């Protein structure tokens, strides 16, 4: 397994990269690496680069950027919009959205949202870590929490809003209302409600948007985090970069 | 939200059901319910039943089974075979497999399996809890951990073994080797390796099985738990009960 590290852009061949205290700790103490050893670094923009550790200490260190190891691979233009839930499950959604190739992650506050604030920096760090783990060269940005209403009132005209309506799941007639075959192409977003579902007002508001495309996720009721992973998977397999 | 409780089979109309100490604690202390209130109970075989709390104490209680509230819904004949990983992620796989409609969950020990034992009773309890949460009437059985070799040597002749080969993911040529369009129908199983992947021997062994059907899950490397959810989703949407 190659050790991978996200560093601040931009990278180029021959560049010297200063390590933060946390990065130096990770390489030296967690991964037990030493000067002279190699790893892969990426900046989210210019692909994956082979780098060599030049110096490594308690407070920092230096990497030397060698050659490009693999080209940049950006995900399709797919956003994930979700209502934050319990901490572990919110972390999970950010991790999975990164692995599955979301380009942007937008937390929204809804009527029944379980938490009214998020730690944006912590969630962004989760996205970085997931990209390091999954061999990606792209890190989705995690935006600040915003009210669903505000997001909807300025929703881009050309971007489909794929709406996993939990009212559809668990309903024997669900298939009549929307199926995976109707998934719109990019630019698109997947909107996942909180554990308590959307309010009637919210649901009506979403459905009036011409960009809204309801989908159903089978006959069982899925938790919000499961619905996020399932919807991202279906979209990537049908409309994204899995095909 | 209707409170749902799994109870031991078989249920029938008019039946009196004795609560365990844990069930009584859950209804009385966690859900704050009292005698006279109603809930839904299910036994995994006969659908969901409306029940009324007759007695509720510290050490147990009694429910009265009213009428059938919804028919039994069994998932398609799909197994999930997976190598246990870290505790939280193993719990997660069992929860998600239940929600997404796996009929049977088989943990296997592989060459690079991170843990060589599981708490079968705890994982089974997770499956019960997930079925309670997701409105399901079926609970998949979680089998005892067994060596992958032994499972493969007695693999049922008519059951496809869908094999998420992590060697395929992250490979630009992945699509040439297997895509979601080749997913075989039920009876089927999805096999997910451990974080370290399968060994070369294991991979060769799996590929010699005529029942083996490799699939790829996109250009990024997925964690084992993500791969399990993604593969279950794709199968259900294409071959299972989401269509």
UniProtKB/TrEMBL annotation, chains A, B:
Gene3D superfamilies: 3.40.1280.10, Hypothetical PUA domain-like, domain 1. CDD domains: RsmE-like. InterPro entries: Alpha/beta_knot_MTases, PUA-like_sf, RsmE, RsmE_MTase_dom, RsmE_PUA-like, tRNA_m1G_MTases_N. Residues 75-236 form the Ribosomal RNA small subunit methyltransferase E methyltransferase domain. Its main location: cytoplasm. GO terms for cellular component: cytoplasm. Residues 19-60 form the Ribosomal RNA small subunit methyltransferase E PUA-like domain. GO terms for biological process: rRNA base methylation. The keyword GTP-binding does not apply. It is found in: Cytoplasm. Belongs to the RNA methyltransferase RsmE family. This is Ribosomal RNA small subunit methyltransferase E. It is an enzyme of class 2 (transferase). It comes from the Bacteria.
């Amino acid at each position: 397994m190659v050790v991978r590290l996200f560093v601040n852009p931009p990278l180029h061949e021959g560049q010297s990269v200063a390590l933060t205290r946390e990065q130096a700790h990770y390489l030296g103490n967690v991964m037990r690496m030493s000067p002279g050893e190699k790893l892969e670094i990426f900046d989210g923009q210019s692909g994956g680069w082979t780098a060599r550790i030049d110096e490594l200490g308690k407070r920092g260190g230096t990497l030397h950027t060698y050659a490009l190891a693999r080209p940049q691979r950006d995900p399709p233009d797919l956003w994930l919009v979700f209502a934050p839930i319990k901490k572990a499950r919110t972390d999970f959604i950010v991790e999975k959205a990164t692995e599955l190739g979301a380009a942007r992650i937008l937390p929204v506050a809804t009527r029944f949202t379980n938490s009214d604030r998020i730690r944006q920096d912590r969630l962004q760090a989760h996205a970085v870590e997931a990209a390091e783990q999954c061999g990606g060269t792209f890190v989705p940005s995690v935006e600040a929490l915003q009210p669903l209403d505000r997001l909807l009132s300025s929703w881009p005209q050309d971007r489909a809003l794929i709406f996993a309506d939990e009212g559809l799941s668990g309903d024997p007639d669900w298939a009549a209302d929307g199926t995976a075959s109707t998934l719109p192409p990019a630019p698109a977003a997947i909107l996942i409600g909180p554990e308590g579902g959307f309010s009637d007002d919210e649901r009506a508001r979403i459905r009036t948007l011409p960009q809204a495309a309801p989908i159903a996720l089978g006959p069982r009721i899925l938790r919000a985090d499961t619905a996020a992973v399932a919807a991202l998977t279906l979209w990537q397999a049908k409309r994204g970069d899995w095909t």
